[in-house]
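Lab notebook, bench 4. Continuing the backlog of folding jobs that were queued last week. Each job is logged with the same field layout so the records can be merged later without manual cleanup. Today's entry covers non-specific serine/threonine protein kinase, a 312-residue chain. Filled in by technician R.K.

JOB TYPE: sequence-to-structure
TARGET: non-specific serine/threonine protein kinase
LENGTH: 312
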Amino acid sequence: MAMTAATPTSSPMSNHTRERVTVAKLTLENFYSNLILQHEERETRQKKLEVAMEKEGLADEEKKLRRSQHARKETEFLRLKRTRLGLDDFESLKVIGRGAFGEVRLVQKKDTGHIYAMKILRKADMLEKEQVAHIRAERDILVEADGAWVVKMFYSFQDKRNLYLIMEFLPGGDMMTLLMKKDTLSEEETQFYISETVLAIDAIHQLGFIHRDIKPDNLLLDAKGHVKLSDFGLCTGLKKAHRTEFYRNLTHNPPSDFCEYCKFRLTINIPHTVLMEEGIYGSRLNWFLYCSLAKVILFLLCNHLYQLSQIS
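JOB STATUS: finished
OUTPUT FIELD FOLLOWS
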């Protein structure tokens, strides 16, 4: 009598398993993406060094010395990147800003004495109000931007309650403070600041990010008076991890270990190859961008809130 083999029945994958598979996949992709990016950056720095030495017409011995110094700096840079920092490594000087999810403090790094702006974000509030995607986008753009038009981020770390972003401190304040001091700006001054704002916005668009909150409060000034964009709390990008739906669909119930949950949510790095569908926002993005800039221009020239409210 012939025996029939039993057909194995496949059980549906649980939400927890599906979630972990997704995280593992994205983590591996990001790991190798970062390795490639770091290698490319090292090669770029090496090429710049070689070009600079050729322009200076250095002798072979001097070139050898420069290459040795460069190699030591690269090693020190890698060591610095591996350093694990915490709140105890910084001394809080004063609070310089408050927001919906936390505050910004002026801090001093204890071992070097360097001054930074520390942005402190409460994890519970971000999760409750579904802001993880925006914070992910903010962290990513601060890392990827070259610093010319965007506030630099030097370190980031977290504890059970908060996420900490250690950024450069810009002594020039923001555009709103400047307007409060001067009341209005001249046409020439307005042209200068708006031109730099357009260049800054274009720079982040080239990286695949959309600010979505352009206003005088978020236009900071460095020590030389040049504009830098800040506060990317409403920022979004073309990566899945920059969309609120990505986190909403992973799970609806945080696990009992809330710290691990936050760590899982906030440390996923999505590779550059994982993009959102093409054409997102499209012409509507440009329209809102122009409206935002028009509001800023009127504000700089007139400092009149009523006029700004007429542009929707």
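OBSERVATION: The chain has a mean pLDDT of 72.
SIGNED: R.K.
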